[in-house]
TrEMBL record:
The lineage of its organism: Bacteria, Bacillati, Actinomycetota, Actinomycetes, Streptosporangiales. One of its GO terms (molecular function) is acyltransferase activity, transferring groups other than amino-acyl groups. It comes from Nonomuraea soli. Residues 2-162 form the N-acetyltransferase domain. Keywords: Transferase. The keyword Transferase applies. The keyword Transferase applies. This is RimJ/RimL family protein N-acetyltransferase.
Amino acid sequence: MTDLRAFEPTDAPLVASWIDSEESLVVWSGKAAFTWPFDPRQLVAFHAADPTRRPYTAVDRGGAPVGHLMLRSTGGAVRLGMVLVSPGARGHGHGEAMIVAGLAEAFASPEADSVELGVYAHNARAMRLYERLGFRPERVDERSVSVAGQWWDSVTMRLTRQEWLES
Ligand SMILES: CC(C)(COP(=O)(O)OP(=O)(O)OC[C@H]1O[C@@H](n2cnc3c(N)ncnc32)[C@H](O)[C@@H]1OP(=O)(O)O)[C@@H](O)C(=O)NCCC(=O)NCCS
């Protein structure tokens, strides 16, 4: 069982320890928010800077943190972002369970008509997970960021409330 609870600043050192390279930082959070080397204080400051950000920590059945995600309302769409499972906990269903819980949180707002996210096109594992939960690719932004001399394409995916209700 995987539950979501509100992210606490004291979670930041653990969450930051799951990011082990500049590449994994960008895969997780894009290029706009943070700089490498990543420091937990950047994460605390980022979440504190904007009250529309709703950060969550995913915990296992014993209450141990295993993941992180964030919701942010942007009009009728809710943005799902900063999806991360602890490297040691991957492949056990935590990613799927925490996104299922995140979708329930997002659609609990009556004005939320869809949930959207961005994922880099080479991140096949994450894309499979999102597609399993009903997200569909909507748009590709080619050469969205450059990391270590390589251009990465970014894919916007969306799940509408109707699709979520039917899933
Ligand atoms: C993408 C990410 C969140 C997925 O988290 P996860 O906890 O590994 O996800 P799940 O366990 O739900 O699913 C992953 C795989 O494990 C499999 N799995 C789930 N439960 C399992 C179990 N009990 N036994 C065996 N396999 C299992 C799933 O079927 C899935 O297989 P697939 O990759 O072949 O489709 C995680 O890999 C991650 O944090 N990656 C780095 C950051 C990132 O890419 N974030 C997304 C940015 S858009």
